[in-house]
Every structure is written in structure tokens, then in C-alpha cells.
Amino acid sequence: MQSRMKWLKLSTGILAGSLLLAACGDSETTDDSASGETTDTSSEETTSSGPVEITFWHAMNGPHQEAITELTAEFNESQDEYEVVEQNQGGYEELSQAITAAGVSNELPTMSQLTTTDVPELAMNELLIPLTDDFLTSNGFPEETLTDIYEGFQGSSEFAGERYAMPFSKSTRLTFFNQGILDEYGVEVPTSWEDIQSLGEMMVEAGDDRVAMGLENGFEMEYETMARQNGAEFINGDTLETDIDSEESVEALEFLSMMFEEGYARTAGEDGYFSGPFGRGESAMYIGSSAGLAHVEPVAEENALDWGTAPVPTFNDNELTLFAGNDLGLFSSASEEEQAGFVEYINFLLQPENTSQWAMATGYVPIVKSALEDPEYMTFLEENPRYEAPTQMLEYGISSPVFAGYGEFRNAFTGAMEEVSVNDAEPQTVLENLQTETESIIESNK
């Protein structure tokens, strides 16, 4: 049994995980009827002659739950050696709480969706099996599938040099645009933040109550993207050295602060998420998650909005986007048979036709490159062009590094951005304070 102190530290990442993933689709809606029953899911050696049971906890709700249920059923029907039993645990926060409780009581499932904030503490408590290339291939995972995974997803759940989860429900940031407003001002879809500033200037001069750009209340991903586009490393995944208060980082946050001050941009405020205000026509653009497409569509249709999507804007002419979402981890209490079943299930999910099926149903993005050559997916993109922009960013998307204390860092990061957008704090001071706090968090968790 691990120390109680470590488990108390684990719980501090729950809030940050839910904030980071709030824009990934499921956090905007809650299907109470989908909350899974809590059962004894401790991993035991299978003694019957039937298939090995693989218990799978997740936080998918609504259409996303329907999609994972369908894929799981297809996997179970495709072979007779394993049976995956998927169990919804509520939302991301509830899932993290359930994992924490199950870890303490030694009643973990075989596998689970994991947020980036879950991984470091679970790994330090030795509750996750490292998913090395050797472990995967020795259990039948094809090497060609490993090399087919987009590079930006490869490190999304790496901690201390080891992979602890496999990418699955991944999203990228996405620009949603209101074609009617763009036509009104005679501009093309902006491709840079400078273009957005120009549009904002025109709208303010015209006395337009709408804004050029809308951002989620938690816009730290947009700021980090801009800082990295501007040349900041932010946090080095290998050395954990930081340059959060560098000239490049400060310049990016000063630009965003100016956008707020001049009325060119605003956050969602009481709406919580900007999909609602955008769908009601309150902004020319907004940046959200690709998995939020399903949330924009009904509001936009209700308001007869002419809208589309595009890659995120560049800052200093550099293309870069951050990946979000979550991965699938294997708990160390799993038997050897269950471990093999986990690998078989992951291999199934990452086959081109299956990862593209998941993308079509949910707005998440395909994990492997060959999915873009899947005929059904190619036809889908032709018929649904709003889903194409996320795929255009897969080659240059990256994952932020995770480290011990990552959940605490994300909470501090979110608070720093609120200081700028809500309290009009000076960017240089905010980032100097965040730099100091981040260094302290990293040092105290060594």
C-alpha cells in the first residue's frame, strides 16, 4: 500500500484535469443516466473457460458514450478471447475520484481513460504498467501501428522517460468562424492573430457589439500555443527548465491582454463555454476543441448561422497547435491475460477504420496517419468539411510535457490567466510570478 501522502497529492490534480479537458467535448454536457454502477472490478486471474474480462472505466457521455459502446461491441464480436466491459464513471472529475478511491482500496479496473494530470501520480505510486515498445510488441501490438501514430501523440502520457498510456480520445484546438460576419466586413478567414486584430479594429470602429475573437474562460492553451509559436520553449520536457517569463512569452500574453482591453476579444464569462455565444452570433470567431463540434452544431443550426472551421491562427507566422484529450492506461493489478487483452483492444481501436470511425462520431481526431487514407473517412471529410481543419494540424501538433506536480502547475497556470482576463493584471508580473511558482512546484516534487 502506498503512503497516504502520495494519494493526497494525487487528488490535487483532479481539478486541473477537469479544466484542461473541459474543452474536449464531454465536460459541456452531462448524461446522468449514463453514470456507471460501481462494482468490484479488482483484477483477478480468470478461472473460467470463457473470455478474459477487461474492465474499462471512462468518462464518455452522450454521443461519445454511444460511440465507445459501439466500438467496444464490435471488438467483442471480432474475437472470442477477451470481453471488454466498459463502465462510465460520470465526467472526468468523477473518473479521477473513482480511480483514486479504487487505488487506495486495491479495486482498480483493468484499464481506464486517464488525463494528463492523472499519469504522474499514478506512475509514482506504481499503479500503471509502463507501455514500452517491447511490452506492446511482445503482446502482439504491430510495430507498423506504433510508427503510424502521429508524433505529437507519442509523448502525451510520457512521464520520467516512460510511456504510461496510449493515445485514444485526442483533440486539437480549432478556429470556428462566422462566415456572415466575415462577409459583412469583407475579409477572408483570418489565418494569423494580426489578421484577427485588424478585424477587431474594424468592428470596434463600426460600433459593433460583437467581438472578433471569443475564448473559453480557461484560455491557457491558447496563450501557451501563442508563446510557443513566438519561440518560447515554455517547459522543456527533458530538463523541466522553464522560460515562462521570457520575452517571447510576455509578448504573447501582452498581445492577448491588448485584445481584451481594446474589445477585440472576450472570454465566455457566465456562459462557461464559448460555443453558446458563438452559436448565437456574438463573435466572428472563437477557438475551442475539435471535440466541441457537436456542441456548436445544434446552437448554430438553431440560429441559422453560416459557419465553418479553420486551423488555429499563427503568431509570428509559426504553425503550431497543442493536443488535448486523454489516453488509455493499464493498471499494474491486471493479470497477464488481462494485459494481453488490453493490448489487443488498443490495437483494435487504433486500426485506421476504427480510429476514423471514432473521429467521425465524436469530433476527436484520428490517432494514426493511415486513417486519412481510409475511404470512408475521406468521403466523410468531403461531405463534412468542418471536420477537415483538425486533420490539417495533425502533422505539427504537439503535447505539453507532464511531470510530477503537473496538476498543481495547471491550477496555477489557470489562475494566472484569470489574473489577466478578470483582474487586468500586468502580463510581465503575472508571468514572473508563474515562473517562480512553477519552479517551486517542480523542485518540491523531485
From TrEMBL:
Residues 1-22 form the signal peptide. Residues 26-49 are annotated as: Disordered. Its main location: other. Keywords: Signal, Transport. It holds the Pfam family SBP_bac_8. GO terms for cellular component: cell envelope. It comes from the Bacteria. Belongs to the bacterial solute-binding protein 1 family. This is Carbohydrate ABC transporter substrate-binding protein, CUT1 family. It comes from Marinilactibacillus piezotolerans.
